[in-house]
Amino acid sequence: MTSLPVTGRCLCGAVRFEIVEAPLSAGYCHCTRCQRRTGAAASAQARLPKDALRITAGEDHVRTWQPEQGFAKLFCGTCGSALFSHDPAKEHWAVRLGALDPGHGIRPTFRQRVESACEWEPLPEDGLSRYEGRAPAND
Length: 139
Known about the structure:
By secondary structure, the chain is mostly beta strands. The protein has a single domain, classed as Metal Binding Protein, Guanine Nucleotide Exchange Factor, Chain A (Beta Complex). The chain contains one helix and eleven strands. The strands form two sheets. Strands 6-7-8-9-4-3-10-11 form an eight-stranded mixed sheet. A three-stranded antiparallel sheet has the order 1-2-5, with no helix packed on it. A hairpin with a 5-residue loop joins strand 7 (about 70-75) and strand 8 (about 80-85). The longest helix has 7 residues, at about 30-40.
């Protein structure tokens, strides 16, 4: 990873944020919820400690969808960009790697929920750790 802070934003620029602590881990999630939320085969994201994420502009544009079970999904209410999620207790955050500005250097090291991987896009032989279910917090 490059030096901190790492910055990011939504597509329209209304929401801007920074990561001020190194991520705990980064990986791809292949669950059906991530597939439907992103329209892709997986969601690339970094897990962050509780206080590592700071919204620097546009907090009033951030909207939340809280499923009955699972992590809250936060997105820009103006352009719809998927930005973050957090566990029910807000102890950990996840930031979508695609929302980060270029040059951040964060690289996924695992694939989780591989039991839900799309049949139309086979998992690559990339050497990343694979997990059925959720990956350990510090993979």
